[in-house]
C-alpha cells in the first residue's frame, strides 16, 4: 500500500500572497512524505526545492520528488492524505465557497481539483483522506518512537481550532485524553511575547537561545499574572495581560541592540513555558502511569524544554519527533492513514531522517561542479571523511554535502557546515563568514555515539541522533568545547551512529584521531536568507556567496578561484517563482518618482533595485547569459555587482548556462 502525505498551502509558487483554501494555519512548512507498506521511502520539505523558507505554497514539487524517486505516477498511490480534519476544511470551504466556484462544495472537491490541475489525474474522492492536525502530530511521534505504549503530548500554535492534545498511544492507536483549545495556545503565547523582543514567527528558537543570558526572577510576577495553572493539568492564558509588558520595557524594534531587559524577558518566558508543560505532564503521568513520553508540535522544537523533561525523572524514555513542526504532519497523516487502513502491519520506528534528494553519484556531482569551472577548482578525494577532518583540524570551516538530504529543520550531517568545536572564537567566525545571525545563538556539537557520554550528560537517553535535546556539557569539558558550549553550560547534541550515517561518523572519528576530540561543530548549510541547501547548485551558490573556506560534495573537494566580473557575465540570471518585479510611478514633493523592486509573493517584502538591474531582470528568460542582457547598459560592472548582491540575498538566481 502506497500513501502520500502532504502538508502546506494550496497556491503555486508564482501566485500572490495566499488566500488559503482552508485556513491560515495550513500555509507554512509544506512537505510531502511517501510510505510504501508502512515504511518511509521518500520525504522532503517544499522549501528545499523551491528555496522559500517555511514555504507557504502548495507542496507540489515535494510530492513530485517523492513520486519520481520511486518511479510512480500519482494514480499509483492508494491514498493522498492532508493534515487537517475534513470537518474543519469543509467549514472553511463553505465560508469561502463564492470564490471557489459552485462545483467545489467540499474540501475533497478542492483537493481533487488541486491534484488534477497539477498532475492531470482525477484520483477519485475515496482516495483523498484527511487527518486531524494534532492526530497527525501525535502519530508522527508515537510511530516514530517505536514505543508499544506511551503518553503522547502535542503542542503548537493552532490546527483544527486546537493548540494541542494529550492522549495515550498503544499498539499504533491513540486514545484521546484532552484536546487543548486554541485560546490556551502555548505556541501563540510564545510568539506574541517575542514580538516585544523584536522577533517574528519562526524566530522562537532564537529566543530560546537568548533565555540563558537572562534572569527569570525579574519578570516572573508579570508572567505569573498571564497564566493560571488549573486543576487536572490544565491552564488558561490571559492574552490581554501580555500588553502589560509595555509597562515593563519599551518594545524592541528588529535590529536594535538587545539589552539585559530583553534577555530577562526571554528567560521569564522560557520559565513560564516550562512551568505550564511540567504542570500538564505531572498530572497526566500520575493519572496514566505511563513510563514513556512522545512529544510533537512546534513547541516540541524547544530543545531546552525537551532536555529538562528528559532529565526530570518523570519518564523512563522520551521521544521527540525531530520534524515536530507542521512538515512532520505530512509524515504523521500518512502514518495515521496506514494505521487506519492496515492496522495489522506495524510501521518501523524512526531511526534516521535521510529521506530527501540524493546529492548524486560521483559522475553526476562532477558534471554539476564542472559547470561552475570559472569559479571553482575541483579535486577528487580518495577518502573524503579523512580529508574533511584534516581541513577542520587545520582551522577550516567547510560545507559538507553527502547522500540523501535530511527531512526536517536540522542539518544532521548530510547538508552541514562543519568546524572545529574547540576554539570559542569559531562562533563569531562562522557568523561573520556565513550565517550573519545574532551573536548570542549557540552552535551544536555532533559526536560519535560511542564517545558521547565522555563529553555530555545524556541523562536516561542512550542516544540523541536528532539534535532535539539540550543537555549539560560535562563541566571539565566546557572550556575544551568552547564553540559549542552555551553560556549556561549546555549543548544541543547530536550523537552520530556508524550504522546510520557511516561517512559522517568516519569524519568525526578521523577528527578525533587527529585532535583527541571526536566532536565537530555542526550547523545547517545555508546562509541567513535561504533554507538548507539540497542540490549541488545550492551548495555551490552558498559556497560562492559566503566566506566558507572549502566545500566537500561527495568525494570532491571544491576550492574557490578568483573570478572577474566577466565570469559572472557568463551566468544565466533568473528569479525564483515566488518573486515578482514591481515598478510603480507615484507623485513626490519634487515631481514623480519610479519605485523599482523585487517583491516576494509570500509576505510582500520589497528589495529595491536600480533601473538598469530592473531592465536586465525584466528581459531575463532563464536562458540568456547576463552579458547578452547587458546590451545598452552603460555601467555594466555596477549592474553585475548589484546582481551578485541580490544573488547573495537569494532574490535572484545566477546559474551556469546549460547549452554548452
From TrEMBL:
Domain Carbamoyltransferase C-terminal stretches: 389-560
Pfam families (UniProt xref): Carbam_trans_C (PF16861), Carbam_trans_N (PF02543)
Domain of life of the organism encoding this protein: Bacteria
First and last residue of the signal peptide: none
Residues covered by the Carbamoyltransferase domain: 27-335
Family that this chain belongs to: Belongs to the NodU/CmcH family.
Protein name as annotated: Carbamoyltransferase C-terminal domain-containing protein
Amino acid at each position: 500500500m502506497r500513501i502520500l502525505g502532504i502538508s502546506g498551502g494550496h497556491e503555486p509558487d508564482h501566485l500572490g500572497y495566499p488566500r488559503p483554501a482552508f485556513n491560515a494555519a495550513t500555509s507554512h512548512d509544506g512537505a510531502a512524505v511517501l510510505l510504501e507498506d508502512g515504511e518511509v521511502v521518500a520525504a522532503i520539505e517544499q522549501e528545499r526545492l523551491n528555496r522559500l523558507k517555511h514555504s507557504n505554497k502548495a507542496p507540489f514539487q515535494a510530492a513530485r520528488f517523492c513520486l519520481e524517486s520511486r518511479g510512480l505516477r500519482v494514480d499509483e498511490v492508494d491514498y493522498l492524505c492532508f493534515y487537517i480534519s475534513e470537518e474543519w476544511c469543509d467549514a472553511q470551504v463553505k465560508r469561502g465557497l463564492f470564490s471557489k466556484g459552485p462545483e467545489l462544495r467540499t474540501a475533497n472537491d478542492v483537493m481533487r481539483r488541486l491534484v488534477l490541475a497539477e498532475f492531470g489525474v482525477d484520483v477519485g474522492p475515496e482516495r483523498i483522506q484527511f487527518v486531524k492536525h494534532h492526530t497527525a502530530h501525535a502519530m508522527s511521534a508515537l510511530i516514530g518512537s517505536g514505543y508499544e505504549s506511551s503518553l503522547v503530548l502535542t503542542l503548537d500554535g493552532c490546527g483544527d481550532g486546537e493548540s494541542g492534545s494529550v492522549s495515550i498511544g498503544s499498539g499504533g492507536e491513540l486514545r484521546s485524553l484532552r484536546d487543548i483549545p486554541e485560546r490556551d495556545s502555548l505556541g501563540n503565547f510564545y510568539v506574541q511575547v517575542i514580538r516585544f523582543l523584536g522577533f517574528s514567527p519562526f524566530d522562537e528558537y532564537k529566543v530560546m537561545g537568548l533565555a540563558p543570558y537572562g534572569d527569570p526572577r525579574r519578570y516572573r510576577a508579570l508572567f505569573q499574572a498571564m497564566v493560571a495553572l488549573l486543576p487536572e493539568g490544565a491552564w488558561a492564558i490571559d492574552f490581554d495581560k501580555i500588553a502589560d509588558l509595555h509597562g515593563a520595557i519599551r518594545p524592541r524594534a528588529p535590529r536594535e541592540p538587545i539589552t539585559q531587559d530583553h534577555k530577562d524577558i526571554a528567560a521569564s518566558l522560557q520559565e513560564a513555558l516550562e512551568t505550564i508543560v511540567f504542570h500538564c505532564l505531572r498530572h497526566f503521568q500520575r493519572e496514566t502511569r505511563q513510563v514513556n513520553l512522545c512529544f510533537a508540535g512546534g513547541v516540541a522544537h524547544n530543545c531546552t524544554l525537551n532536555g529538562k523533561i528528559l532529565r526530570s525523572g518523570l519518564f523512563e524514555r522520551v521521544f521527540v519527533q525531530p520534524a515536530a513542526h507542521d512538515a512532520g504532519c505530512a509524515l504523521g497523516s500518512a502514518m495515521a492513514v496506514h494505521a487506519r487502513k492496515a492496522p495489522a502491519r506495524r510501521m518501523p520506528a524512526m531511526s534516521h531522517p535521510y529521506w530527501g534528494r540524493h546529492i548524486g553519484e560521483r559522475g553526476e556531482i562532477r558534471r554539476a561542479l564542472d559547470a561552475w569551472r570559472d569559479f571553482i577548482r575541483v579535486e577528487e578525494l580518495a577518502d573524503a571523511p579523512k580529508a574533511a577532518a584534516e581541513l577542520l583540524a587545520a582551522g577550516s570551516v567547510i560545507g559538507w554535502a553527502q547522500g540523501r538530504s535530511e527531512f526536517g529543520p536540522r542539518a544532521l550531517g548530510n547538508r552541514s557546515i562543519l568546524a572545529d568545536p574547540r576554539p570559542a572564537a569559531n562562533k563569531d567566525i562562522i557568523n561573520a563568514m556565513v550565517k550573519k545571525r545574532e551573536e548570542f545563538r549557540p552552535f551544536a556539537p555532533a559526536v560519535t555515539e560511542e564517545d558521547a557520554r565522555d563529553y555530555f550528560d545524556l541523562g536516561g537517553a542512550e542516544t540523541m541522533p536528532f539534535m532535539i535535546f539540550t543537555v549539560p556539557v560535562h563541566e571539565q569539558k566546557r572550556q575544551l568545547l568552547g564553540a559549542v558550549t552555551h553560556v549556561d553550560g549546555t549543548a544541543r547534541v547530536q550523537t552520530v551512529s556508524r550504522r546510520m550515517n557511516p561517512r559522517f561518523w568516519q569524519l568525526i572519528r578521523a577528527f578525533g584521531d587527529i585532535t583527541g576530540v571526536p566532536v565537530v561543530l555542526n550547523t545547517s548549510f545555508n546562509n541567513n536568507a535561504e533554507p538548507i541547501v539540497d542540490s549541488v547548485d545550492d551548495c555551490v551558490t552558498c559556497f560562492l556567496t559566503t566566506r566558507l573556506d572549502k566545500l566537500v560534495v561527495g568525494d570532491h573537494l571544491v576550492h574557490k578561484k578568483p573570478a572577474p566580473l566577466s565570469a559572472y557575465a557568463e551566468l544565466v540570471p533568473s528569479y525564483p517563482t515566488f518573486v515578482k518585479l514591481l515598478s510603480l510611478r507615484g507623485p513626490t514633493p519634487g515631481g514623480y518618482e519610479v519605485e523599482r523592486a523585487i517583491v516576494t509573493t509570500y509576505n510582500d517584502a520589497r528589495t529595491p533595485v536600480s533601473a538598469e538591474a530592473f531592465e536586465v531582470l525584466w528581459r531575463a528568460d532563464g536562458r540568456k547569459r547576463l552579458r547578452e542582457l547587458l546590451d545598452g547598459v552603460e555601467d555594466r560592472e555596477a549592474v553585475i555587482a548589484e546582481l551578485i548582491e541580490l544573488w547573495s540575498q537569494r532574490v535572484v538566481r545566477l546559474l551556469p548556462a546549460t547549452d554548452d
